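Hi U.,

Before I forget, here's the chain from the pilot set. I'm dumping it here mostly so it's searchable later in email.
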Amino acid sequence: MEDLRSDTAGLAHVGLDAAGDQAHDGRSYLQLLSYLGHRVGGDLGVGSVQLLNEVGLDAVGSALSVLRGERSVLDVGGELFARSCSGSRYQALVQTLGKKLFGSARREGERVLDGNEYFDLTWFPASSASPGTARTGLFHVGGVLAYGDPLFRLLPEICFFDRFTERGIPVYAMELKGDRHALDYRDLTLEKVIDSVERFSRVAFEHNERNKLILEGYCGLAPQALAFVAARPQEADARFRVAASFVGPFDGRVCGELAEIMGLMPESLLRASRAATVRAHDYVGGDSLRFTQDVALRSLLGKTLLGRFASGWRRPDFARVDGVESLTSAQRKELAGAYWTSPENCRRFPIPADLSAFSEALFTRGVGERGELPASYRGRPLSLASAAEKTQLRFVGFYGAQDSLVPGSTAKVLMQVFGERYSHVVNENAGHVAYVLSPKMWERGAPKCFDPNPVDLLLALVGETEKHESPRATPSN
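Structure:
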């Protein structure tokens, strides 16, 4: 709780200090402070009362069940002890077992094919149990993502790459080499990301026997993937048939609560924040990232000690946990997920200044109507128009109707720029991370399954490009 008060006070102090005599920014600062006060007060103040009330009502209800003769004193005492024990140790379980589980998926046969200062390129072979008829492969643009790209390897039983390998599609994953404690990546820029994609996609293309690939980026990594196509259209056209975005925020101005808080931030505050980032060794710290997101999503309370206690109180089965081996499937997913979104994990994966500026610009300015990206590459402005005009790629965006972070409308500019070459998919039952965390939804015929199935659509688009590809020779690179 003290950390959150410090965050709020610190943000207010930076804002007021940066405003100085800029009277024209005064109203913006008042609006921002009012917003923060309302959100933080509502989440922490009202929310805390509600949680305490919930715990109290549970205890009273259990006691009344004894008075009514429905349960024994021993039974109720055991339950309340288990709830209390589970609540008191829940935070420790998240920070130990959750941390151990997070990003733990490893696959037989996976192999690092290449690497540079920041990234490794890892190959995941197609499953031997799959038909293995796909000539294409998936190139995953991973790397710098809030809370870390180990998300895509969340658990041995929940790995994003499996959705493709189990259908006969090998995966080439560009992944950050480690967190800030293992790797100093503060000088990583969008230009260096683009150059890394260029290098690794060449390796992947050759490894896949020069069969063209599917380019893919998830959430904030999707704009980085398309920035590569805009910057290096010849190489993109030579190596890829389809570029796929999963919940990519291209026009961040329509992204609900996140867009609202970003829109309230005065320009002088943003400038001061950028300057502070440079002074602080070119990282946007994890606390700054998660505070902004948690305020917008009203998730501050759940990550406090009180919130953690309440989570454990609701799950008395955690009282009996004594190691990873004793966890049920549901417990594994809960602890890994809680660690993934924890402040401690967010601090491990800060965002370098240049990539933060690119993301910030997408939320404050968006992508221009003609596809102008708020970035440049080697001194040249980047535009998706280059991707449209200089490649034959098909483009597809996958979104979710239940996504409170990134609505499908954020991809309107992709529809405008790519026209009939763009396929827009909004799955009715998908939330923001459903494509990663819900393997069952990828199964045809399963309850609430994705319709259309992403792999089915991607393979269909690959097939269409194969049939209609120009007979011109494929470049050697």
